[in-house]
Amino acid sequence: MSFRPMNSNNPNLTNIIRDETSLPKINIMTYNVNFGGVSWNGETNLGGYRALQIIHEHSHELDIVCLQETHQGWEFALNHFKPSENMYHEGLHSKNKASSLRANFPHQFWDHSKTDQYLASGSAVLATKDFDLQVQMLESGVKGSFFDAMHIVVTDLRSSTTKTKTRYESSLSIIIDEEKNQKKKKKE
Fold it and tell me: Where would I find the Endonuclease/exonuclease/phosphatase domain in this sequence (predicted)?
């Protein structure tokens, strides 16, 4: 995964060393939720519930969440998730108690276009109210692969004027990661 601010025309921004204090901080979580953790009608098993609970526990510190292996049931389950009260023993995670995942991440993009053929092929990107999303699915050219890449443009809405808003661009590709992992395993 690579990120680059889009306020320059330089295509090699990821290779430029920058003063980190000049860029806003964005907290991102990526999670392979396992398509089998939630049924097609949105009912969670223990694994699915735990995945949703983890996202909820960390939602107060996240700006963007990228999910793999989603389907329509995951979308329903995430947007209707009610955390367990035992998450809050001794006041832990009190920032999240009253809010739902849908409220925490109002900007959402879900792609289930191939889940009728490949159960684990869905993806999602969630963003807080402070970030706008533009997502384009890029069909894989790799033979036998059913995971498409996502081209994500995130606009930071925390700036007070439109002119100073910073846009970030990221291309996520599960295919590339799979190829790297396969090469790494062969070397081992």
Answer: 29-126
